[in-house]
Write a structure and sequence with these properties.
A three-stranded mixed beta sheet has the order 4-3-5. Strands 1-2 form a two-stranded antiparallel sheet. About 75% of the residues lie in helices and about 5% in strands. The longest helix has about 35 residues. It has one domain: Rhopdopsin 7-helix transmembrane proteins (Up-down Bundle), CATH 1.20.1070. The protein is built from eleven helices and five strands. The chain has about 325 residues and is mostly helical. 2-acetamido-2-deoxy-beta-D-glucopyranose (NAG) binds next to α2 and α6. GO terms for molecular function: G protein-coupled receptor activity; olfactory receptor activity. This is Olfactory receptor. It comes from Chelonoidis abingdonii. Belongs to the G-protein coupled receptor 1 family.
């Protein structure tokens, strides 16, 4: 293990890079993992590009729900790209290191996009709530101006909160150990390396997670309670089925994303285990960005119909 340190003065040294030790113990298996994750990553990028193009090309999909879905697909591509390519390289090379600046950049991008995704998913739940519980006022309430504002507010919240938090984390001194027990610069594994009392940061992290993960989560929960009670009151089985089919894809994505995020950021610190944490992180950095386009295209009649039409129009 090479220790690269810059001498500040006799008593203090400052690290300039971290090394990842997440998958080192897997040895030859790393090549197999590389291939699997590369495949998933390429499918994710392709799937999300297909969703974006399909929605842009299909006039029948120019509604608020699909406006938000374009935004979400774009976000998920960036989100998974902030983590996966670096992890892929590290599965192949011997020296799995990242500069502190690189680590900070990764944490900024990853956390900003992560929180933006929470807010965007809440916005999408609100959109479904208005569509199902107030169908007559839907076009009035969800005007294109409101949609742009809601999406912009999600991005702004993610940016402001996580930029502040990450900046704060990187004002901590890092003077060794330099090994990150993870495959990317996530908040907790990095905070654990600071050579200072980090209890304040961990409390702040918990507070921020509580407010900004639980907040959108509760909004989603309330929206779906209202949605489901409205659906159950509908008289015909056909309209029940139709209403439910427009929100089931979103519900699956929300459950996966928040299930893993809440588990990671709100579990009691005493039960923190790097190994479970790594597995769960793989879920929300590698797997859920792929599931999003899959769930939306395969479970959704409108999208499937638009796909057939677009293909028919352009290739026959
Ligand atoms: C997502 O929404 C924001 C805010 O409305 C907008 O600026 C951005 O261009 C959108 N991104 C995509 C890919 O549609």
């Amino acid at each position: 293990m090479s220790y690269k340190k810059e001498e500040l003065n006799e008593s203090q040294t400052v690290l300039t890079e971290f090394t990842f030790v997440a998958f080192s113990y897997l040895q030859e298996l790393q090549v197999l993992l590389f291939l699997v994750f590369l495949l998933i990553y390429l499918l994710t990028i392709m799937g999300n590009i297909v969703i974006i193009l399909l929605i842009k090309l299909s006039p029948s999909l120019h509604t608020p729900m699909y406006f938000f879905l374009v935004n979400l697909s774009f976000l998920e591509m960036c989100y998974t790209t902030s983590v996966v390519p670096q992890m892929l390289v590290h599965l192949l090379v011997e020296h799995k290191s990242i500069s502190i600046v690189g680590c900070a950049a990764q944490m900024y991008i990853f956390t900003i996009l992560g929180l933006t995704e929470c807010c965007l998913l809440a916005t999408m739940a609100y959109d479904r709530y208005v569509a199902i519980c107030h169908p007559l006022q839907y076009t009035l309430i969800m005007s294109s101006r409101v949609c742009v504002c809601l999406a912009a507010a999600s991005w702004l919240t993610g940016f402001l909160v996580e930029a502040a938090q990450t900046t704060w984390i990187f004002t901590l001194p890092f003077c060794g150990p330099q090994q990150i027990h993870h495959f990317f610069c996530d908040i907790l594994p990095v905070v654990k390396l600071a050579c200072a009392d980090t209890s304040m940061n961990e409390m702040a992290l918990f507070g921020v997670s509580m407010l900004f993960i639980m907040g959108p989560f509760l909004l989603i929960l309330v929206s779906y309670v209202r949605i489901i009670s409205t659906i159950l009151k509908m008289s015909s089985a056909e309209s029940r089925h139709k209403a439910f089919s427009t929100c089931s894809a979103h519900l699956i994505v929300v459950t996966l994303f928040f299930g893993t995020a809440l588990f990671t950021y709100l579990q009691p610190r005493s039960s923190y285990s790097p190994n479970t944490d790594k597995m769960i992180s793989l879920m929300y950095t590698v797997v859920t960005p792929l599931l999003n386009p899959v769930i939306y295209t395969l479970r959704n009649k409108e999208v499937k119909g638009a796909l057939k039409q677009t293909v028919a129009r352009n290739f026959y």
